[in-house]
Amino acid sequence: MENKIKIGLIGLGTVGSGVFKTLQNFDNIEVAKIAVRNKNKKRNIENLDESIITDNPYDVVNDPEIQIVAELIGGIEPAFDLIKAAIKNDKHIVTANKELLAKHGEELFKFAEEHNKVVLYEAAIAGGIPLIMPIKTILAGNKINKIKAILNGTTNYILTKMDVQNASYSDVLKEAQELGYAEADPTGDVEGFDAAYKITTLATIAFGKRIKIDNVYREGITKISPDDMKAANELGYKIKLIASAELNKDGRADVRVHPMLVPQSKTLAHIDYVTNAVSLSGHPVGDVTLSGPGAGEFPTASSVVGDILAIASEIGKTDYLLPMMRCHHHENAQMMNISETENKYYISITAQNSMGVIGRIGKACEDNNISLASIVQKEVAGDNAAKITVITELCKEKDMQKVIEIFNNDSATNVDSLIRVQI
After folding, report:
1. Torsion sign, CA atoms 94, 100, 102, 108
2. CA nearest 93: which of 67, 65, 119?
């Protein structure tokens, strides 16, 4: 076919390989150049012309024939400089870079608009799950005011295995690393950074106001124990790392990532292993949940290739491509601090099995405007210690933190876990 759309790829790792393989199925697309870190690395990819591979990514962004650049290396630098150089050189952009979008999205989209170029990023939020285009098109008539999502496959795999095997976090993490589900340095996943980047961009799109990553509360899964998993099951919950975003009645945004006890009646409680899911609430649609593979070679490639084809279909037909998919956010959201929020809480306490300890726990909560939904004392261990599990009613975060301080300063009690409960 004549007049093929020429594509440049930056990165030929897991996702880049999937993108290259998938693009072989389209006669109107030609991968003209690919930048890699190591040209000498052996790659098990059929029909890969070694002559188009370079170890200088600027060969891709400066090539005058390339019309679309797909950035698939992640991180801030050199990705940001490469994307800006490509835009200057009259190229449209497809990226899967959630960190770059969360930290520099405003600058990037402004720069692209100034040069009349499109930046698409479907793969940056939830791998193969279609989210951005549906929100900007099919759901454009909705006022979306709440998002609850599982956006990180590594942490969901770890929590699922802890639940199924009654195993410790450290044991399951080691297993996940051996299987390739967790990185050698898992910090970005297990401390919630990855999910925070994703919910920042997703909430910006859904709410139509820019969310600042610095104002997103983040808490990881490293303190979750088998005892927490067992208690959650007994109480009718599952523990998940939830990326949450909500607009309150005043229009302020509450955006955060932290573990939650999710009621087993909720869809997200049953999203297991590496699967991702996003539940959106809005008017007039009501509640919508989209789930599927949140990472991997071909699921992520599906979203990248979809973006490439969307741009390719418009090239040569209009001077202003894909207006609905462009960034139209000119206002920063007013953000809520976590201390201002109201939540229900699960608290696990180890206490001396002495008279009045339950009463002291109840009194501390009462004095700080916290009502208890349940309080359970389990078997007494050999060292005269008892496990006490508390579920609160809805209360203020700042009040709960005062109570936790009281418990930890009491020689008879020690807080093992504090986990918020999905309402």
Report:
1. negative
2. 119
Q: What is the dihedral of CA 249, 252, 253, 254, to 10 degrees?
A: -70
CA torsion 303-112-336-193 (nearest 10°) is 50
Any residues with CB less than 8 A from the CB of 232 and at least 6 apart, and which?
A: 238, 239, 261, 346
Share of the chain above pLDDT 90, in %: 88
Q: Where in the chain is the domain with CATH 3.30.360.10?
A: 132-293
Which residues are known catalytic residues?
Answer: 198
pTM, whole model, 2 decimals?
A: 0.95
| Residue pair 395/369 in contact by the 8 Å Cβ criterion | yes
E-strand ranges in 270-423 read 275-283, 286-293, 342-352, 372-380, 385-392, 395-396, 413-421
Q: Which residue has the higher pLDDT, 1 or 187?
A: 187
CATH superfamily, region 132-293: Dihydrodipicolinate Reductase; domain 2 (3.30.360.10)
